[in-house]
Structure formats: C-alpha cells, structure tokens
Amino acid sequence: QVDFWRHPASPSHPADVRVPFPSLQAVKTLLESNGISYSILIQDLQKLLDEEKKAMAKSRRTERSTSTFDFASYHTIDELYDWMDVLVADHPDLVSKLQIGQSYENRSLYVLKFSTGGSNRSAVWLDTGIHSREWITQATGAWTANKIAEEYGQDPSVTAVLDHMDIFLEIIANPDGFAYTHSSNRMWRKTRSINAGSHCVGVDPNRNWDAGFGGSGSSSNPCSETYRGPYAHSEREVKAIADFILGHGNVKLVISIHSYSQMLLYPYGYKTAPAPDHQELNEVAKKAVSALAAVHGTKYTYGSIVDTIYLADGTTIDWTYDHGVKYSFTLELRDTGCYGFILPSTQIIPTATETWAALLDIMVHVLEHPY
Amino acid sequence: VMELPPSHHSATRAAALAACYLSYRRGSPGRGLALRAVRSGRRQDIDGVGQKYYLELVLEDVLDKDSTVNCTAEVLHHLGNKKIAPDVQFTIEGELKNTDEADNVFYNRIKSLEKELVAENIPDNHGNISPEMEPIRLLAWVASGYVIWQNSTENTKFQFAQIKHVKQVKRSDEYLEFDYMILLHEMVSQEIIPWQMTVLWHPQHGVQVTQESRQPKHASE
C-alpha cells in the first residue's frame, strides 16, 4: 500500500512515493533488488506534519494579538507603526502606506491611503497628532483608519465616498513630539527641532504654515508654545504635508484634528475678515456638529478660529484654504477641560465614534458638492 | 451693552473665569464644578471702570456629568490695573448636591493617616485617577479656581491640568493643609504653567488658598 505523490510518467523521470512504516523494509528491498536508485526526501512525515501544525497555531496566536489591536488604549509610536502594517496587510486592495517625508529626528512620516482605484481622484486629507500631547487624536486616527477599512463595502456612505474619492490619513503627524510625550514630557506640544541660539526646543507646527505667517497670532520666542519657527514651513513635518497636498493637486477636503475644547472650526485664524465661503462652511459645521451630538450627546461649538478661540496665524487650515481647499476644518476633540490633554482611555472609543459621525457627514457633503 | 455669540471667545473666557470662581466658592473634595456651556453673554464697556460681562452659564458636576445646574454671573475686568483680580458675582439656580457625607469621610480618612499623605501625577499620564485620590484631585480643582480667578485677564483662559505633586502638611488644629504643585494650561498662549499653592480645608469652613505662586518652566523643557 504505497501512495504516489508524483506518479511514474516516463523512463528516466523520477517518481515520488510515500511509504507507510510497516511497508518500508519491503519497498526498500524491492527497489534495491531491481536496481532502482532512490533517495529519501522526507524521513518522517508525521513529525513534519506535527511541526507544521504547531507553527500554524503559533502564528495564528500572534496574528490575533497584532490584528486584534486594542483601540481602547493609548499606544506608543512603535505599536501604532506596527499596527499600520497589519491594517495594510488585512486590506491590501484598499489601504496602502506612503511615506511623505521624515521628521527632524529622522522618523518616518507615514500616511495611510484609502483608494479603490482611479487616477489622482479628488481626495480627503485627515491628520491627527500634529500637537503631540493631544493623545486622544492619534488614538482617534487609528480607530478611524480601521473604521474606514471595515466599512467600505458595508456602509453605503463610506462606499460612495471611496468609490469616487481617495482618503489620506496621517495618524502621527508629529512623531518626534509623540515619542517625547511618552519618554519625557507628557505635555509636549511642538516639534523637537533644535532652535539656533536658544536652549529651547521645538516649533509649533500649527503656527508654521505660510498663511499670515509671523503675525501677532504666534510667537517669535523659541521658548514659547506658539513659536512660529524661523520661517514658514521650516519644520519638515509641516513641509511634508504642504508638499504632498500641493503635489497631489486635487485635495478637496482637509480636516486637521486637535484636542481639546469640543469645537469644529473653519478659517480664518490669522485675520478677522470672514472667509469668502464662511456661510457654507458654517452650515457644514452646524450639520456635522449635530451629527456628532446625536451619538453620545456631546456638545460642540463651531465657528471661525479667530472668533471662537483666538487670533492664530500660520495654521494648517488657513494655508490649505488659501491654496484652494475650500473645505478646510479643524476639529478640537474631547473634553472641555476636566481632563484636558490627559483624557482617560475609557473615552477613546466614545470620542472616536462620535467624531466619525461628523467626519462622515462632512465627507458626504464634499462628495455631493464637487468643485 | 453688546450681545455676544455664546461661542465667541470673549464670552467663553469670561464664562470660564466665572465658573472657576464659582467652583472655588462652592467646591469641596466631594464637589467639583466645571463649565458645561454658555447660554448667553453680553458685554458692557464702562468708561473709566472696565469691561463687564453678563453671562448665563450651565455648570456640571465633575464627578457626574449628568448633574448640571444653571447660573448667572457678572464678571468685571478692571481697566488698566492688571494686578487686581476681576470682580465676580454669581447666582445659582436651585440646589447643589449635598456632599457632607463624602466630605466627612474624606476628612476623617486623612485625619487618621499615620503618615502625611504624599502623591504625584494625578491624574496620571493616561488620565487615570484612583478612587482614593479623587478627593485630592477635586480639592486641587477647587483651589485652582481661586488661583485662576486671581490671575485671569480678558486675554487668558486657564484650565486645571494636573497635580504634579501633593504633600500633606501636618497641623495641630482641625484644618487639613496640603502643599500642591499643579500644572495649569493657559489656552491663549498654550503654555503649561507649574503653580504652587498651599490649600487649607475643613468640611465646615470651605477651601482656602493661603499661598500661591507661579513657578518657572523646567529648563529641560
């Protein structure tokens, strides 16, 4: 009773046969007495099978622990970067990872691209974590990336958006700052670039953009939390995004996500004059805030940056707006000050789910109002 | 008198200040009050005096977000002299929850400690607070209301951020005394400012800040 794995086909061509143990001696004798040379490919098949089974079980366990990412807790930069690769591996037809540059300390600046094809489709740009201490934002970014991947093909709105537009999501827009909040100072906001002639480190990446750069809505003091930097786009983290958006040329919506205060803001921050599109932006904001509140009752206020919080120049969305991205918004997530930057991880999922309602509402509006 | 949109920063800054003052006057280790929403705001420029704000606010209980209370407040920022704290007056509609029992439990617990209480980083960097430390945090929250009131202008919006360090100070009388090093977050400048404050408390005598001083940022940051 032998089991051919490769049947004899023609003379001078090998055949492979599996021999059960009791028949081993008899088969060997048969081959030798007939002058048929043979070699042993597998000494003990059962042993091989046992090892393979063990290896598969082990990799299933590891796969489960890396792809069963705990969105309800805060993670390190390495954990988030590792997970991004898992997300891409799990959804290879939808998600890819791009590198748009490097941080001051040479960390990779990664952007997840969600696309169902096409060529340079209209795009949505989302970023979280540009201010590193705003931990709820990176956590929300990760959850959101996963949500987009899960809902494509399931949720009609997500499917409609992705069938016509691409989504770019930079979860850790300030990796150096983020690493520093873990290693040294939980309240670090800025980049970690060295400032010539000063012992103070870092530039505020949300005052470094070339929009009203250098006004009274930012500081010229390197020790200040709102230090604008030596010149616009001096920060690699900022330049990378600006170059990407300019190079892409077809970005229609930008949402830069911060915390805290529970606000949905639109341009301008650098001047009090209303943005030309302020009426529509105000309507979009009003509707998005209402969609958000419907999830857990969380109340957001909305308005222009300059009216609602303060004069701020060199901000992300003022620059994107002035460069043709009509739908430019900043979100300030939970809370309103009870915990501030150190929001408990129990609030990650509720925050992410309500924020998602607003994000989707805005994306659908943009989809339905092409320009 | 000018009507202000409730979302406008001049209304929200005045409201935050009023809420902090109110929290200081009415708070305890069992009760922290926070600004939930601004319902309306008006501003009046009074020649030779300063800017006066008339506000309708909603406050919430830090420990129970579903528990809210309506208030009205008036905030007067004095012209020119930045050394004088703004005048704040308020009226609370209805009753605040009674916290006598929780306050007494905390008081007795601390009084019966063998060694003076010492703690750091409340909440911790992940936002966690152990139940035993919650009254310590609320006491700091309430006391910071005083500090914020004393140090606010129309161009600042302070928020309590974290206790870096707290040390109980032994006293021979019935008061509890704590020496706090806290972090305040100032929204307009985005600065995180270390602040020292010495806090006295007794269940019947409320919260007192006997000393407070702004500290320099650490050279390493």
From TrEMBL, chain A:
The keyword Zinc applies. It holds the Pfam family Peptidase_M14. GO terms for molecular function: metallocarboxypeptidase activity; zinc ion binding. Its main location: secreted. This is CBPA1 Carboxypeptidase. The keyword Transport does not apply. Keywords: Carboxypeptidase, Disulfide bond, Hydrolase, Metal-binding, Metalloprotease, Protease, Secreted, Signal, Zinc. SUPFAM superfamilies: Protease propeptides/inhibitors (SSF54897), Zn-dependent exopeptidases (SSF53187). Belongs to the peptidase M14 family. Residues 73-366 form the Peptidase M14 domain. InterPro entries: CARBOXYPEPT_ZN_2, CPA_M14_CPD, M14A-like_propep, M14A_act_pep, Peptidase_M14. It comes from the Eukaryota. One of its GO terms (cellular component) is extracellular space. The active site is at E332 (proton donor/acceptor). GO terms for biological process: proteolysis. SMART domains: Zn_pept. It is found in: Secreted. Its cofactor is Zn(2+).
Automatic annotation (TrEMBL), chain B:
It comes from the Eukaryota. It holds the Pfam family LXN. GO terms for molecular function: heparin binding; metalloendopeptidase inhibitor activity. Keywords: Acetylation, Cytoplasm, Heparin-binding, Inflammatory response, Protease inhibitor, Repeat. It is found in: Cytoplasm. Residues 1-98, 118-221 form the Cystatin LXN-type domain. The keyword Cytoplasm applies. GO terms for biological process: inflammatory response. The keyword Cell membrane does not apply. GO terms for cellular component: cytoplasm; extracellular space. Belongs to the protease inhibitor I47 (latexin) family. PANTHER family: LATEXIN. Hardly reversible, non-competitive, and potent inhibitor of CPA1, CPA2 and CPA4. May play a role in inflammation. This is Latexin. It comes from Eolophus roseicapilla (Galah cockatoo). The lineage of its organism: Eukaryota, Metazoa, Chordata, Craniata, Vertebrata. The gene is Lxn.
